[in-house]
User: Which sequence fits this backbone?
């Protein structure tokens, strides 16, 4: 039986991996080794490991690595602690494949620790570009340490080839996070309003803002500008979600908590909504604002207008639902929000096709994990297409 170690460190990432994890768990030829780390184990970020436990998947290891600080030193130290924890975990579990998704520092630590063991790594969402964050570097480094690649679009697949990876080990099936949209029975607005105690008579706006880790303290000033503008749209009820555990995230969390406290009639905050409720929120919201990848990848499937502020998502393929505001200025944000909620704009994105797929990637990824040959996987070579790969 082939042992597949799946690493998950955040609530969002677990949601994207859910159907892949389920498929592995239900495939007789595969043994799921679910390893939980990072924000999942932090009470500050909702202790979302409980959601995984409720899902019924067996957790074989919990790798503690996240320090109670968001400084540069703390993030780098967390990576070191993670490598130690993952090394001990791999030595005990002896997986045949390690499966990871995305570009965060927790995943970089997990993959780096797999290299000395010669464990083949399968990477989902490689080849993408997020120029506003240090994750850009982690993502491409993870790609070069990986052996099996599941990019979400053909453009990203081409970029992985450009990085010298073997074309026969690159499988472009789309984004697996979209599978939940088509597989779950999402809640209607009234049902969701009852569960979350939201005002059903108002339009809902989702606000998710993550630190732009290349810009140091400018996030604080930028987010103040965004909050000031959000407060002026009091006809919209604003639903905030927490940022990831990146450098500078705690100051943003403090700003969110203060805003919600002072504007409780138009805003609320959730540490974690869970997959069903979050996707149901995307389905029933009137717009999203911030800089989350969810606005780029999942929101198009709901024809949801997204005001994307700053350059955290710069470089990613986007659909016509995204209204970019490159410079964080009040006038530009106000103009973008007014456009997002206008009937003309909503009508213009009716029938929108999501460039990240149609929601059938997970089953195909699991089949590759079941059948792909692992012989000589650890012996990587740079594949120069002009010369052929031998």
Assistant:
């Amino acid at each position: 039986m082939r042992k597949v170690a799946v690493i998950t460190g955040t609530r969002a990432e677990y949601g994207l991996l859910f159907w892949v994890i389920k498929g592995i768990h239900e495939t007789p030829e595969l043994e799921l080794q679910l390893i939980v780390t990072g924000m999942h184990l932090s009470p500050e970020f909702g202790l979302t490991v409980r959601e995984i436990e409720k899902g019924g998947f067996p957790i074989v290891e919990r790798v503690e690595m996240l320090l109670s600080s968001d400084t540069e030193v703390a993030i780098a130290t967390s990576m070191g602690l993670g490598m130690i924890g993952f090394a001990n975990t791999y030595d005990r579990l002896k997986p045949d494949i390690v499966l990871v998704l995305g570009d965060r520092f927790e995943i970089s630590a997990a993959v780096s620790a797999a290299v000395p063991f010669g464990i083949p790594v399968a990477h989902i969402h490689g080849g993408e570009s997020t120029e506003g964050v240090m994750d850009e570097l982690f993502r491409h480094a993870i790609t070069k340490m990986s052996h099996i690649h599941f990019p979400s679009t053909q453009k990203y697949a081409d970029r992985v080839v450009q990085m010298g990876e073997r074309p026969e080990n690159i499988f472009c099936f789309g984004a697996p996070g979209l599978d939940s949209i088509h597989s779950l029975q999402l809640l209607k607005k009234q049902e969701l309003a009852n569960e979350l105690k939201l005002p059903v008579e108002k339009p809902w706006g989702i606000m998710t803002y993550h630190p732009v880790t290349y810009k140091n303290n400018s996030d604080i000033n930028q987010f103040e500008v965004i909050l000031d503008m959000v407060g002026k749209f009091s006809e919209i009820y604003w639903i905030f979600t927490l940022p990831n555990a990146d450098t500078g995230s705690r100051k943003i969390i403090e700003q969110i908590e203060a805003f919600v406290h002072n504007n409780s009639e138009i805003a609320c905050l959730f540490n974690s909504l869970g997959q069903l409720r979050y996707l149901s929120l995307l389905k029933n919201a009137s717009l999203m604002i911030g800089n989350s990848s969810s606005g780029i990848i999942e929101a198009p499937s709901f024809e949801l207008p997204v005001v994307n502020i700053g350059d955290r998502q710069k470089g990613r393929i986007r659909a016509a639902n995204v209204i970019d505001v490159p410079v964080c200025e009040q006038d530009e944000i106000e103009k973008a929000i007014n456009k997002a909620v206008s009937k003309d704009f909503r009508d213009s994105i009716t029938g929108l096709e999501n460039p990240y797929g149609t929601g059938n990637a997970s089953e195909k990824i699991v089949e590759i994990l079941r059948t792909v040959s692992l012989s000589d996987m650890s012996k990587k070579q740079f594949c120069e297409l002009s010369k052929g790969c031998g």
Remarks:
- Residues 186-348 form a domain with the Rossmann fold fold (CATH 3.40.50.2000).
